[in-house]
Amino acid sequence: MKALAAALNDRLKGQRIESVQMPDKHTLVFPIGRTPDALLICVDPTANALALVQAPKREAAQVRHPFRDLLAARLAGGTIVGIGAPLGERVVLIDVRSHSRIGDRTEVRLVVELFGSRADLALVEGEQVVESLRRRRLEPKDAYQEPSPAVDPSRPGVGGPPLVLREYGHLAEGDSTAARSFWERVWSEPGQFSPVRLENLSPPFYPIPLSHRPEPQPAVLDFLVALSQAVQSEREEADLERRRRTLLARQEAALTRLWRTEQDLLAALSAAKEAGVLRRQAESLLTMVTTLPPEASQFTYTDWESGDARTVALDPSQSHAATAQSWFKEARRITTRCKRAEALLPDVQAKLEAGILARDEIASATELPKEDADHGAGRRPSAAPARPYHTVRTKAGHQVRIGRTQQGNDLLLHLARPADLWLHAHGIPGSHVILSSQGGVGEADKEAAALLAAYFSKGRQARNVLVDCTLRRHVRKRPKSAPGLVLFDHEETFQVTPAGALLDHLLAQLE
């Protein structure tokens, strides 16, 4: 750390701090003078860092934090007087000449303590702590005391980082004089040799050859350049993992929804046999209505498909004929669900397979889109606005648009051409439906649009629904009328049942 402080002091002494930026709650960045450099200080418990990096753009996302505001008020425009570090400690002291709150020129000190989970960053004025970022050890108004030296240059082999101790031990095995000379050089010339974890740098930094590393060693790089590259690489990897976790969580949520949809559709298909059983027992009950006592609570019949005798409970609160009709209705409902499941299941399974492949690609990707980069810390990206209407095409290729909201209904009226067809369920609330008339429409196209108008209305569950149809030019809105409320004339009326294979096909293609 002393070597790092010495290198930073040579580079930054006398330079002006332009501003104070805070990209996340543990990191502060100080752009320096008119240079492209910035001093980065990170006291994240899992990733302590101090390095000279490329200055970020002014419009980069920032965190609002009281400590950042304090440093901006006290340090922005100040001059770096000196940077130093106690021998053998993970502490760096940055002295800055700036202005007090009332405008007087004063000197303050930034204390950077990189103690892993106990790391902290504090502003010290005189001998007193003004404020600290994490308040792990440095509390406001407390007197600041520098840690006692952890290394004694006169006691070789005692204290120091693992790399230095390994090199000293290796040298001491063969030549104690060379080992002592190495130890004195490490602590007397920290700018020439850095007592930090150099093996983890990418690329590594070896100011002097290491005798305990027999493999070929890379060329010597500038210490600050090597350290900055390492810090930048670690931050990019951490950012990549953060985006990977975010994208994987979203993908897993989407896959869960698709899997549940698939299970629902498979359950609907598996209930197809139940519809046949309901029809057969309803038909059997109708054949026995004249002979079965009205008060009977159950009846027995022979299922002619399987040949089994079945006993079914009856509802005493309604007639046998009404019970049979309710079974017919339930059988129709199950059949409709089954047909729709048959139409939707292949598409859902295809999306599920594609989603699994996408998840695997995200897990192994070395580059991911920075889709959250411009939203700032603590803010979630806003979802893209949903289109206010559905679209689908008939089998003949004509576009049909269905309003999703009252405002969407009004928008469809604005988008439609005068010769397009406008449809709406007769006398009941529902969506406006616009059928494009380009190329001429046939009766099958009108039937498809009428089915959609009936389905997207309050009459969806009815057996028969009336649907009005007229040209768009005959539909008008009164001034200041409520959204979706219109007047129309020259209409013709269709009667449709909102069920069947054609409707299932249209709903499966819905966008």
Question: How would you briefly describe this protein structure?
Answer:
This protein has about 500 residues and is of the alpha+beta class.
Structure notes:
The protein has 511 residues and is α+β, with helices and mostly antiparallel strands. It has 10 helices and 19 strands. It has helices spanning 2-12, 66-75, 162-174, 176-188, 223-270, 272-287, 320-364, 406-415, 443-455, 501-508; strands spanning 21-24, 27-31, 37-44, 47-54, 79-84, 91-99, 105-113, 120-125, 128-132, 298-302, 309-313, 389-393, 399-403, 421-425, 433-435, 465-471, 475-476, 487-488, 492-496. A 6-stranded antiparallel β-sheet has the order 12-13-15-14-16-19. A 5-stranded antiparallel β-sheet has the order 5-6-7-8-9. α5 packs antiparallel against α7 (320-364), α6 runs antiparallel to α7 (320-364) and α7 (320-364) runs parallel beside α10. Mean pLDDT is 81; it is low at 194-204 and 372-385.
Describe this protein with a few key phrases.
511 residues; alpha+beta; 10 helices; five-stranded antiparallel beta sheet; elongated; 37% helix; single chain
Secondary-structure map:
Layout (H helix, E strand, L loop, with lengths): L1 H11 L8 E4 L2 E5 L5 E8 L2 E8 L11 H10 L3 E6 L6 E9 L5 E9 L6 E6 L2 E5 L29 H13 L1 H13 L34 H48 L1 H16 L10 E5 L6 E5 L6 H45 L24 E5 L5 E5 L2 H10 L5 E5 L7 E3 L7 H13 L9 E7 L3 E2 L10 E2 L3 E5 L4 H8 L3
Antiparallel strand pairs: 1-2, 2-3, 3-4, 5-6, 6-7, 7-8, 8-9, 10-11, 12-13, 13-15, 14-15, 14-16, 16-19, 17-18
